[in-house]
């Protein structure tokens, strides 16, 4: 999929800058005036790097540890986010499997895209995903993330999530029940333990292709190219 | 209800009235009188609750129909004030001074239909569609399916059936 589309040229978009990210001069506490350019000063300009995949028993141990502590970012998109609260409550209790919710991207390594993504939400989802530390995994929940589902001809929702973010596990259904989500977590654990869930590296390798796709639909790209 | 309608007809030029129930009616009024009538209903007739403002695209006739739906909380009646505005360079007088929530409706109509409300706060800012460059998507000459197919990488292999034809072939295969 990546190879056949890799030649898409980078889309030139008009650059918008958020008001808080505009260049400005600020008076420092000692009275001197300094120029700041938030896009350059507050965000890292380097390209992201792949995380190191070790080999042998060390990698096996690390993968076991990663698989047994899946920390999910509390970010709900679309109708699927309503399937997640039952997982936390005693009936399904995902904590049994080492899965728990985290409030910020910096503390989590699993991102559940729970349903349709509008362009506006996709922008926030990309920002959140890029802030998560590697190795990180994406579970795509519901048929909306696979082919658009019932929103396939909508003017504002994406059809295929894998063109914008690397997906590890798809859970089909509209909507999948919490049991299906637990099965998805079990599958993700299997993949991690087998060393097959390294999509975060794939994202870094194919960054230009992903960015071109993202910029094709996010027309007011007013953030750095990669959000550290 | 009849009393209020008669009162309105004596003051404004109502071109069309549609009484749906004994507590709901729609009055069509010229564009320049619409806000005046809404103000009159709010201040003198007790229609103090603003329910919604919506638009319909009558592309064949070449105009938009705006509906201001007002509710009277004391006698539980509703009046919809309808007005027709030109479709090209659609502009309408802003009514944000009457209810604050009107701003949001006007912002939405600006984005989804391209109807301008000069003077309404934040009306030019992006509301839901950020950085939209095409024609407003709720206009009927906007082809949603074509736009989605060109923009969002449709997954090949989707089969669609016309529901009526499909059910006919399933239920009555011999006909």
What does this entry look like structurally?
The complex is a heterodimer of chains A (228) and B (175). The model of chain A is unreliable at 1-14 (pLDDT under 50). With 228 residues, chain A is an alpha/beta fold. Chain A has helices spanning 38-41, 56-68, 85-88, 119-131, 144-147, 178-193, 199-205, 207-217; strands at 24-27, 33-36, 70-73, 99-102, 110-114, 137-141, 169-171. Chain A has eight helices and seven strands; from the N terminus they run ββααβαββαβαβααα. Helix content of chain A is 32%, strand content 13%. Chain A starts with 23 loop residues before the first strand and ends in an 11-residue tail after the last helix. In chain A, the strands form three sheets. Chain A has a three-stranded parallel sheet with strand order 5-6-7. In chain A, strands 1-2 form a two-stranded antiparallel ribbon. In chain A, strands 3-4 form a two-stranded parallel sheet. Chain B is an alpha+beta fold and 175 residues long. Chain B has a single domain (2-171), classed as 2-Layer Sandwich (Beta Polymerase, domain 2), CATH 3.30.460.80. Chain B is 30% helix and 23% strand. Chain B is built from five helices and five strands, in the order H-E-E-H-E-E-E-H-H-H. Chain B has a five-stranded mixed sheet, covered by helices on one side. The radius of gyration of chain B is 21 Å and the shape is globular. The termini of chain B are far apart. Classes of the chains: A alpha/beta (228), B alpha+beta (175). Chain A binds chain B through residues 16, 118-120, 123, 146-148, 152-160, 163, 213, 216-221, and chain B through 126, 128-133, 137, 142, 144-145, 147-149, 151-155, 158.
